[in-house]
Amino acid sequence: MKPKVLLINCPSSIEVYSKSKIKTAIGIIPFVSLAALAAVLLKNKCEVKVLDLMLSKEPKKDLISKLKEFSPTYVGITFTTPLYKEAKELAAIVKSFSSKIKIIGGGVHPTILPKEVLANTEVDIVVVGEGDYVLPEVIFSEDLSKVKGIAYKKNGKIVMNERADFVKNLNALPYPAWHLFDVQKYRKPRTTTRENPIGTIETSRGCVYRCYYCNKSIFSRQFRFKSPKRVVDEIEHLLRVGFKDIHVIDDNFTTNRKRAKEICDEIIKRNLKFPWNLDVGVRVDCVDFEMLKKIKRAGCYGISFGFESGNQKILNELQKDTTIDQAYEACEMAKKAGLEVTGFFMFGSPSETEGTMKETIEFAKKLDCDYAKVTLIVPFPSTAMFEDLDKRGLIRTKDWSSYNFHTSSKVFTHPSLSWDVLERYYNRFYSEYYFRPKFIFRRLKKGLLNGNVFFDAYYFVKTWFF
Fold it and tell me: Residue 351 pLDDT > 50, yes or no?
């Protein structure tokens, strides 16, 4: 009999933004990680279902219903740090339904804190790192001690196995199993997309950079990538299953500019006409005008840059290894190429002051992006920032559900600023940026031209008054 595996996405994977100023720009997008894991399980002759509880109005009821209908032998739950509490609750529901079901935890948080997850939840096994090859081994192994890349419970104790290698050849992975998803339900507001439904694609893995606040290095700093041909083959697959707008979720799509250009060349060569977006964040030192023009020609309409701060000392503290001048240049090149530009900024670095936050607000206004987003920095576990603050006794809580970029989580004591001040400047950023006559006039003009003026008005009212 084939093993039956149910893969679950937590209900609040997007809901964590519900109290933020950017809530109206957030839609429901499919998680490529679940689609990728489902694909390798199918390839290994498992019977697989995906339950994306982001789409559910009654998550607990829908989970129990799916357990009754499918009767899985394994349940996989992927989660980040803010979703730890919710994943714990889901695991408890699964075990209360049937103690025989083996629960496998995966994702960023279980990789960082596997022992804590196993000790404090109903999760039986944790995949540490990438699960593409590890997960099938777990399911078919008769001896977990021989499976690299996991931690597990055995006779009341927690066993940590040797770490598995990262996936080196991404081309060898099967196409993500998007046919297991209800494609039509993945949508974003008109402000941040061109068409619906929205699809996602991972063209590479690994970030070679060392930002102070980022924990992506737990999945390797080595840049690994799919070939341009494989990427565009996968794009065609996404379009065939019904997605109409594709968002690239790479850590940094332009790490290898030559490859980025070749992907665009392949899209153009095949005469593919579809809108796409680089909305996760591109480094300002990883673009050039030729590449940006080619990206635009290949159908990309938007690019996001991680500007972070308007103060060079803060950028240095964040270990961005970029400059203010590079930020201005990247933004201008992208605008000149005809791309919509979104800027990402953050407040709360340990050396932050009211003065540096004022500089960042002015910097954002001078860049004058189509959209701008500021977050309150969060020292996630396994980041250099968390380790430094923890050593100084400044981490106030390890209630992981509080670790949210867009709410006043107050998870650490800032060395020189109160949270009231940080919150005030967070709100000030949005009001000063979006209430500028120049910005309002531009949005009004653009809305009249593209027919989105009523949508813009609706989202504006919803953002500021609800």
Answer: yes
